[in-house]
Each structure stands twice: as C-alpha cells, then as structure tokens.
Design goal:
Elements lengths: L1 H12 L2 E2 L6 H4 L9 E3 L5 E2 L6 H4 L6 E10 L4 E10 L2 E2 L4 E7 L2 E8 L18 H12 L3 E2 L4 H11 L11 E5 L11 E12 L1 E9 L5 E6 L2 E2 L19 E2 L4 E2 L1 E2 L6 E5 L10 E2 L12 H20 L11 E11 L2 E3 L4 E5 L11 H15 L7 H22 L41 H5 L4 H13 L1 E4 L5 E4 L4 H15 L6 H16 L4 H12 L16 E3 L6 E4 L8 E8 L6 E6 L3 E4 L7 E9 L12 E4 L10 E4 L3 E8 L2 E4 L6 E12 L3 E10 L6 E7 L13 E7 L5 E6 L8 E10 L9 E15 L19 E3 L8 E7 L3 E9 L4 E10 L2 E7 L8 E9 L2 E10 L1
Parallel strand pairs: 1-3, 18-20, 20-22, 32-41, 35-41
Antiparallel strand pairs: 2-8, 4-5, 5-6, 5-7, 7-8, 9-11, 10-11, 11-12, 12-13, 14-21, 15-16, 16-19, 17-18, 21-22, 23-24, 25-26, 26-29, 27-28, 27-30, 30-31, 33-34, 33-36, 36-39, 37-38, 37-40, 40-41, 42-43, 43-46, 44-45, 44-47, 47-48
Length: about 900
C-alpha cells in the first residue's frame, strides 16, 4: 500500500500536465493571430508530442497543424515545425515552431490564426478552376520566354530534382491567403497559388489568384538578387583547392564530397546546363569561363562552412545538390538565387571573374538556407532581414575561408563595394531602425537592400563591439563577442526562432532567446545581444529593462480611468505619462509601485493618450511604450461605444429622407451630435444607412438607438430602433416610429455598424466597424422636456466674434468682476464637451481671448460657457457654418 501511495505522490509532485491542456489564451495576440513568441509559464510543465499540437494550442475545429520538420539540436532541444490548415487547405505564410526539452513544451514561435473570422464559410468554395487561375497568372506576367518552354531549363530541373517528371510548368493549388503582409484572420481569402518562372525577362514569383473573383490579390518574389552596380577591377581568391569529378575521360566541376554534390554548369544561352571540362584535376580556364572556378570554390566553401559551424548538410539540411549556373546572360552586375539554384552573371567591366566573389556566393546560398528554415517573406522588414542574413553569412564564409581577408565591405574581393556592414550610412543605408536613410517606399520590394543595413550593423557590433550614439539619441556601448559566438547566435535565431513574417523587433527576441539557449539567460552574451540591438534602435540595453506590455484603460468614467499594464521582471516601479490627445505636453506620474494607476480629474468626452515606462536598476529607464488612447464618458451621461478597427469598413453616410451627413472613416467613432434632424412624435421614418469599405465589401450589421425619453441613456423600452444587415456598398433602410410619448427636445441618436455580429448593447466596444452619434429634434410629443434650452442671459457679458463662425478664428470678449483664471468650455447641445481651454491671466474688467480648437467643430450650434472659481460667469451660443 505504501508503495502505491508513493507512486501517486511522485506523479503529482512532478508537476507535469498529462491531461488535456489548452494554451490558446496565452498564445493569442492581436486581431486573431498568435503572438510571435510565447514562453510557457514556469508553473505549466506541459508534456508535448508532435500529434498533440492542435489540442494543446486550442485551435478551431476546422483548423490543424501539419508537421513539416522535427529538428533536434546540440543543446538537447527538439523543435517541431508546423504550417496551419483550415478545412484541409494550407494557410499561406503560417509557421509555428514548438520548442521542447525532455519532452516538455518550453516555448512557441511563429504566427498562426488563433481566432478565425466567423464568415470564413462564406468564402470557402472556389468559383474559378485551377486552369483559369494559371492562365490569369501567366497572362499577368506577359513574358517572352518561360522556363517550362525552354528545353534546357526543363532538362535541368529534372536533373536537379532527380525526378524525370519534374517541370517548371505552373500548377495551381488552393491556399488561404492574406493580401498584403503577414496573417490577418479577417483578410484570409481562398486563392490559387501559382509559381510562374519567366526567363525573358527574368522573374519568378508565386502569384495568388482569388478563387472566387479571379483577381490577382498577391505576389511573392522567389528570386533573391545581389542587387548592386558599380565599376572596379576584379580581385579573385587566388589558387585554391577544389574538388571535381572524373568521368573516365575528363574532369567536371562536380564535387560529390559535399552532400549530393556542388555542381557548377554553364549559364550561357547556347550552352546552358552543360558541364565545364578539364583534361586534368588542376583546372585552368580562360576568358569568362574562369568565373566558374570562383563560383565552384565559393559555393563549396559555403557548404563546408555551414557543415563545420552548424552541422548543416546543404541549404535544406537534407544534402540537396547545389547547382550553380555561371555567366548567366539575364543580367549584368548581378547574381541571384531562384528558389532552387544559383545564377552568377558577368560584370559590366568584362572582367573574367564575373559576380562570383566568395562573400557573394555565400550570400546567395544563404538565401536558400533562409528559404528552408524561417522562410522570411522577401518584402519590407522581413525581406530586409532576409538580405541581412545573407550579407552576414556571406561575410562569415569569407572570414572563415580567408582569415587574412577581414574586410566588412560586401564584394571587396572584386574591388566593387555593394554595401558596408561596418558603416551602412556610407552607402546610403540606415544603421538605426527607422533612422537616417530608412527606406519607406514601395520600390526594391519595400527597401530590402536598403533597410538590411540595420541588421548588418547590429551584427558588426556584436562581433567587434563599439560605442556611439544612434539616430534616435541613444548612447550605446557594445562588448565584442567575436565572430564564432555571433555566428552561432544569428544562425540559431534563423533556424529556430524566426518565421516567415518576423519583423526586426522579433529578431531581437529571437537572438536573445538563442543566446540564452547557448550561453545562459544571465550570460554576457545575452547582455551584448541586447546592447547590439539597442545600438540600432531596437529594445532596451542590458543595463536597462524592457517597457511594459499590455497597456490598457478600463473603468472609464466622465472624469477618470484605470490604467493597467503587465509586470516586467526585475522592475519595481514605473512612470506613467498622460495628456489630452490634442495636446503636446505630457503630464508625468513617477515611481508607481503597482501595475495599475487610477487617473482622475479628467474632463468628460475627451480623448486622452497614455504611455508607460519601466524604472530599471542603476537609475536608467526603458523608454516609453507606444501610447494608447481612450475617451472619457460624456457629461450628458451617454456611454462610450466604438469600433476598434476601421481597417476594412466604416460608416459612410446616415440620412433620413434627403437630409443626412456623409462622414467617411472616423477611425471607429464619429461625434456628429451637432447635426440634427427634425422628427415628430407618432410618425414613422426611414433611416438610410450606407457603409464604406477600404477595399473588399463585407456584410455589415447595423443597430440604431434613440433616447426618446431624454434620460441620458439608450436602455429604455423602445429605444433600440432595430437592426438590419447590408451586403453591398449600397444603402440599407431601417424604418422606425417616434413614440407619441417622446420628450419634446433635442436628443441623442446612436448608429452602430459592426462586422459579422449584430450588436444589442448601446455601450458595446467591438473589434471591426464604427459608431456615430447624431441628434434628432422631437416635437409633438407628450413627454416633458428635462433640459432647459440655454439662451444668452440678460446681462451676460460674454460675446463671440464672428458669430456665425465661417473660418477657424474666433474671439471671446467678456467682462470679469475679479482677476483670476478663466475656463472656457465649448459643448454641443447634447452636453458633450468638445473644447476645454484655460486662461490664467484674466483681469478685472474687459478681457479678450482667442478661442482655440474651433477647427475641430463641425457645422452646427454649440454652447460656449465661461467659468471662474467654479461659477459660470458668462455663456453664449456659437453657430458654426
């Protein structure tokens, strides 16, 4: 009996969770997508198997995770790499990696859809055939020659893959695709993915054709260029040892000592795909053919570098043969990876070696490694990181192969400088995230060859150390780790923690995690990784700390709100800043010991910004987080309701008959109570509600409320006027009747438009859509007015000029009985405060003040009130045309 009890006790004390686990709540990020990196809480020792992923992460019943690789590493971790499907169809650009050790889940990296859009079923049936999609994609390219129509290209793909049926002929397959960048549960569309490879002019990309509309909704390039021009003489690698293959009669540039081969072939049009040959193993080639020896040597050294440093067998770690085509005539002064092979072109100087410097060969093959590991999308930040990884490893291959040739300028061996890793600014690249030279345009796939300078300079500092002040004013000091450790950290970040949609800030997290795995969480290596990223404007330094995340506002009232945030490990106090959204000066609350703070003394119906920072050890701070915005409740008592995102839809127009207002996109909420329409009690009317869309059209759910008894809310019987659904960009009608018992006065009218879900709460805050507030003027009702119309009192000294106001400049004139501060308030006729202005220098007698903030007023009637010492000393109506 004691033995059985001991077994049971051991089972529970181990703390291992063997039963059903659902980590959905901790992996959920913004807009239905997982956080990029999530650590499993220390108190949850979750037993993990490859088949348990879907259940553990709490995925939708129609979703699944498909295992693509199981990757053990030398630190004892096993990494399970997945892509996601929905109803059996792959979700493009999804990638999720489960990091385990000793069978327990330690963390997750990547992005998958956690909460699918509720209207997915309305777009899961293709109306277009695969062949129609293929025709659409090919027609959009409009090339003169395609790879599948070139006999040499077709023969070579069969040779490269060892598959006699292999072809470059496009084959459409269904995927779920988010137009734009990354993953977005709302934007997922059923699409055909078609790989189109053209050779004249050269291009290769995956095209995404909407399976319902037939339109091309996306394109992802698959050719990665060196992308540089310049003039200089060529400097070669000198005499080197290479391996070649003896056929029995001659030697060919085929090295079968490395994986399934390093194979170097002719790239010229007339001899494309044929072997170079030599009568002896001691190769001598003349003219442009000599470039083949540089390419063969460089690719062979790159293979050897990855094997020696990381135990990686070819770009895909499966020994796949490495094909190079030399003297490709497609481009001059370029080299590129096409998704399965390397192409090296000639120089414009006609130098025999072409574009085959050893750091260039290392660069191109690393594109293959990136493709096979994290698959960074080749555009914008992820594309810049893709380029940076290739620059970094290209130089590392050079320094490993030729330790006396330490030069941080890319392609220095050819005396043709493409980029400078040690000083990116020298050639017009940024060395600070979003600093000087940061590229923000659409060219160069969103600046992939420009913005790679940030990652390059980070690596240079990680290897060599350095001090300085970056473009955003941060003084930094980075200690040198040397090339060996820096390479290991970068490679582990690439192969373990990055995914296809990672951004620069994600790379920082990936490198910190990699350094922690390799050298310990409290190691100097982790500190220097933080310092290197801090130097280029990303995150905090090792002597600082991170700013809090999870900043939120709750318990919002007319005069205050509770601000809360997540605790930062090792931080004991925080600084909070707040201000009116329209103000330029922040108010600061310092040394808050808790992770929440109650803001008080705010004004009703105003938008406020709040940001937070950590107080780190040693007297430093983390720097402030990005601000959040919240709006206090109105003085009239109406609750706040708004949509959190108008990225897809918004309220375009609200009208009754021919009277209405076209508002456009107001970011989730629009206050138009100064627009008022007359209605009579006991009569029926029709509201015309028109949605607006950013691009695609969606189904929208409308609900309208009216405060008929004018008690400051929309909660009474009959005040929900009803709901209606629109399915196009045209207006929909919502009929309503004004009760005979309605109060005779101006009162509130609220319009909610919500994607997919019909709202029934007038105070709802929802994800997608918009809310607008208007007024109606009721007459003929039996209810008594509860709010006296404000008129200009006899003897009131306050005057406004000009009135009506047609521009944005108004002056307030008034006579004060005493000296002191004067507060001017501008409200609409529902009591919503729109402008709050304090004048500290009021004098006894006549005063003139410039009324500020009138540019924020729409056309309508407003009340201007002056207060001194808590008492109203003047008021007047202001008409704005």
């Amino acid at each position: 009996m004691k033995k059985h009890l001991l077994v049971i006790a051991t089972f529970f004390l181990s703390g291992i969770i063997y039963g059903q686990v659902n980590l959905k709540s901790i992996i959920r990020g913004e807009k239905g997508v997982s956080n990029h990196y999530t650590a499993v809480p220390a108190n949850q020792n979750v037993r993990f198997t490859a088949a348990s992923a879907r259940t553990i992460f709490g995925l939708d019943a129609n979703a699944d995770l498909i295992l693509t690789k199981t990757e053990p590493d030398k630190l004892g971790y096993i990494h399970y790499r997945y892509f996601q499907t929905y109803k059996g169809i792959p979700v493009e650009n999804s990638m999720y990696i489960a990091h385990t050790r000793n069978g327990l889940l330690r963390g997750m990296t990547g992005r998958i859809i956690v909460d699918f859009d509720p209207e997915m079923d309305k777009r899961n049936t293709a109306r277009l055939s695969a062949s129609q999609a293929e025709e659409t994609a090919i027609r959009s390219v409009g090339a003169q020659v395609y790879a599948w129509k070139d006999a040499g290209m077709e023969q070579n793909i069969k040779m490269q893959t060892g598959n006699k049926y292999a072809s470059y002929m496009p084959k459409a397959r269904l995927v779920w695709y988010s137009p734009g960048f990354g993953l977005d549960s709302r934007a997922l569309r059923l699409a055909y993915k078609i790989d189109v490879y053209a050779i004249k002019p050269l291009s290769r990309a995956d095209y995404f054709v909407d399976a319902i509309t037939g339109k091309i909704i996306g394109k992802e390039d698959k050719i990665y260029f060196t992308d540089a021009t310049g003039t200089a003489g060529t400097y070669w690698s000198g005499t080197q040892t290479i391996h070649s293959d003896f056929t029995g009669t001659n030697y060919q540039l085929r090295d079968y000592t490395k994986g399934n081969g390093v194979i170097t072939l002719h790239g010229e049009s007339g001899s494309y795909g044929t072997d170079y040959s030599s009568a002896t193993a001691n190769w001598t080639l003349s003219g442009f053919n000599v470039a083949a020896l540089d390419a063969h040597y460089g690719v062979g050294q790159t293979y050897a570098f990855y094997m020696a440093k990381f135990g990686r067998n070819s770009y895909d770690n499966a020994g796949t043969a490495l094909y190079s085509y030399v003297n490709d005539p497609t481009y001059i002064d370029n080299a590129y990876w096409d998704g399965s092979a390397m192409h090296f072109c000639k120089r414009s100087t006609n130098e025999g070696g072409g574009v085959t410097g050893i750091d260039v060969t290392g660069h191109e093959l690393t594109h293959g490694v990136t493709q096979a590991t994290c698959g960074l999308v080749y555009s914008y930040e992820s594309g810049a990181m893709n380029e940076s990884l290739s620059d970094i490893m290209g130089k590392s291959v050079q320094f490993w192969s030729k330790p006396t040739d330490i030069n941080w300028q890319l392609s220095n061996d050819m005396n043709w400088i493409i980029r400078d890793i040690s000083n990116p600014n020298l050639l017009g690249q940024p060395d600070t995230y979003k600093g000087t030279y940061w590229y923000t345009g659409f060219g160069d796939n969103g600046g992939v060859h420009y913005n790679s300078g940030v990652g390059n300079f980070m690596f240079y500092l990680l290897v060599n150390g350095g001090t300085g002040t970056n473009d955003i004013g941060n003084a930094y000091t980075v200690g040198a780790l040397g090339l060996e450790k820096a390479d290991q950290i970068i490679y582990r970040s690439q192969s373990v923690y990055l995914v296809s949609t990672s951004q620069y800030i994600d790379w920082r997290t990936a490198c910190v995690n990699a350094a922690s795995d390799l050298y310990g969480a409290t190691s100097n290596e982790v500190d220097q990784v933080k310092n290197a990223f801090y130097a280029v404007g990303l995150g905090s330094s090792s002597t600082g700390c991170d700013y809090p995340v999870g900043l939120a506002a709750s318990n919002i009232t007319k005069s205050g709100a509770t601000i809360s945030w997540s605790a930062v490990s090792g931080v004991s106090s925080y600084n909070l800043q707040w201000k009116l959204s329209t103000a330029t000066t922040w108010n600061t609350v310092s040394n808050i010991a808790a992770t929440s703070y109650n803001l008080t003394g705010l004004s009703p119906a105003f938008a406020y910004d709040v940001e937070i920072e950590s107080n780190c050890s040693g007297g430093t701070t983390s720097g402030y987080s990005s601000p959040i915005t919240f709006t206090t409740l109105t003085a009239g008592g109406y609750c706040i309701s708004y949509g959190q995102s108008t990225d897809y839809e918004f309220i375009q127009r609200v009208a009754v008959g021919t009277t209405g207002y076209t508002s456009g996109n107001n970011g989730g909420y629009g206050n138009f109570v100064s627009f008022s329409g007359p209605v009579k009690a006991g009569r029926s009317y029709v509201l015309q509600l028109t949605p607006g869309f950013v691009s695609s059209i969606f189904s929208e759910n409308w609900t309208v409320y009216a405060d008929f008894n004018r008690d400051g809310d929309y909660a009474d019987a009959g005040e929900n006027l009803g709901s209606v659904i629109s399915t196009s960009a045209a207006a929909v009608n919502l009929p309503f009747t004004v009760p005979a018992t309605a109060t005779n006065a101006r009162t509130g009218l609220r319009v909610q438009m919500s994607y997919s879900v019909t709202q029934t709460d007038p105070c709802a805050i929802f994800t997608y859509g918009e809310v607008e507030d208007y007024s109606i003027r009721i007459s003929g009702g039996t209810g008594l007015a509860t709010m006296t119309d404000i008129t200009q009192n006899k003897g009131n000294s306050l005057t406004i000029l000009p009135n009506p106001l047609k521009g944005t400049m108004a002056t307030v004139g008034m006579e004060l009985a005493a000296q002191g501060k004067v507060t001017l308030k501008v409200s609409d006729l529902s009591g919503r405060l729109l402008v709050l202005q304090e004048e500290n220098n009021g004098t006894k007698g006549k005063n003139t003040f410039i009324l500020k903030g009138t540019e924020r007023l729409n056309s309508g009637v407003f009340m201007v009130v002056a207060e001194q010492n808590g008492k109203i000393v003047g008021r007047a109506q202001l008409l704005v045309n």
